[in-house]
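Following up on my earlier thread - several people asked me to post the actual chain instead of describing it. Fair enough. Here it is, all 59 residues.
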Amino acid sequence: MKRFYEEGKLDKKWVEIYCKGDWESCVRYQMEKRKEPRPDWMLPDGHIDEKLYKLCNRR
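Reply from S.P.:
Thanks for posting it. Predicted structure:
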């Protein structure tokens, strides 16, 4: 998430709402706490962002 945000590919609302705000409701945070893998293209609310997926899987 941080990389996408810093590169301007992720809307700042995600960082403001979840990372700096209600981080305990972040699905990514909850999965990390349970030591579950999560894809880089998963948004904090648990949705998969196809645009980020394509960026991660470019060759």
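The longest helix spans residues 12-19. That should answer part of your original question.
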